[in-house]
Amino acid sequence: MFGQQAPGFDKKSILLISKPVKMKKRNTILLLGVAAIAILIIAQIIIIRGIWKQNLEMLDLRYRLLSQEAVSTLRRQRAVDVYDTVRFILDNYSEKVAKELSGIKDEKLLQQKKDEILEYFTMVLNKEQDLSGYLSAYFERMGVDKEFSHRIEIVNLEIIGVDTFPIYQNEFFVRQRPPDQRGQGQGPQVSVSHTLPETLDARTSNILVERRGLEDNYYFLFFEYYIDFTDKRMMVLRASSASLAMSIFSLLVVVILFLITYRNLMEERKLSNLKTDFINNMTHELKTPLATITVAGKTLEMQKIRSDETKVLETAKMIGKQSVNLNQLINMVLEISMWERTEFQLDKKKVHIEELMNDIVNSFKVGPGNSASLSQKYNFNGIEADIDPIYFTTMINNLLSNAVKYSDKDPVINVEGFTNDNKICISVADNGIGISRTDQKHIFDKFYRASSGNIHKYKGLGLGLYYVRKIAEAHGGDVSVNSKPGKGSIFTVTLPY
After folding, report:
1. CATH entry, 344-496, from 3.30.460.40, 3.30.565.10, 2.40.50.140, 3.90.870.10
2. pTM recorded for the entire structure
3. Using alpha carbons only, how large is the chain's radius of gyration in Å?
4. CB atoms within 10 A of CB 437
């Protein structure tokens, strides 16, 4: 803005160092956040599985107790053992087959006979026992109207005659039965089920109601009675739904809070970076006029210069110009700082807008260091606007200065003015480097400077367009931009009148 950069200021090296460091910190924060969320998800899964298992066990316990209570009630009502009839039938059958088994010598025929005996015992148990029907009625009376399936599983079966014939013995019974009991032989590993399929899932999902041993003169029988509700998993899911919903909700809350925190952190870091850039740019902008004034002061100390009145006058003008620039810069920063604490104060007056625009543009044309080709065209219809002429002039001058500043070639500026729907519209078009779509969203923010292209070779504080926006908004108006990189920009100020 005011000349070349003062010696000793190496901003490029600072940027080269700071950018990788900032990126590394951001990635570290992101990775830590993702790791924390992953750990939380794993913990929630463990908790949900634990809750599911607990609710499943509670459901099993509830219906096991209900079923056992129903069986006890049934026995009290009858005052006799439920399986007396079964014992009688099976004992008579066992006496008959014991004699047959003792006479069979062929292993294949013996195995077929054992399978036949096992099937018969299963049929009798399923036919004669009436727990299933009784349990259905009992559950209904208890207000538990649930459909269930039942299953009888024989654990051990032996026929006792002159010799003991092991018919069936599953792995559970082999592990659990003491070695000194009868029936040490291994029978065929036959799977027996009623209604429910004999699978591992079926076994583990069933609720054990009763485990009984029956023994008479000619047989020894040990069996288990199971029930399984058709909608058992849905019952457990409903019981766990509140905990599941809370887990999912808490997880979502944590994720959302992390995203909000991360976004705020990035915004704070962005603001911090903008302030850092502002301080660096401010240092440069202050150093340039101060360095010029210092050099001019040392020049005036030279005897050769003091003896030349023309050179003394030129040096004095240079000092005066840089002093004015320095004063303007400081005043702008102070004014913006004041705006943050107090409401923007305007001294509005009725002003002939076309005359004021002509004065501003014509003064800019003849300004020092201005080599722009500048044209203007107005159609205000002689209206007068209620504005602050000083702030309005500063606003337009900032737009014109930017048009000159951000140009890689001879600047060409077109200023147009017109009225539309009781509003003043003033556009400043240039042939400069242009602004990307991303930067257009933030170009009017305080301290913001475009991060792409070669814009950083143009020094500034990132306050000029912010200043323009604040002045426009204070007048009840707005400012917008339409730009393409490499194609120039058009800034449009709209004010009511």
Report:
1. 3.30.565.10
2. 0.43
3. 48
4. 9
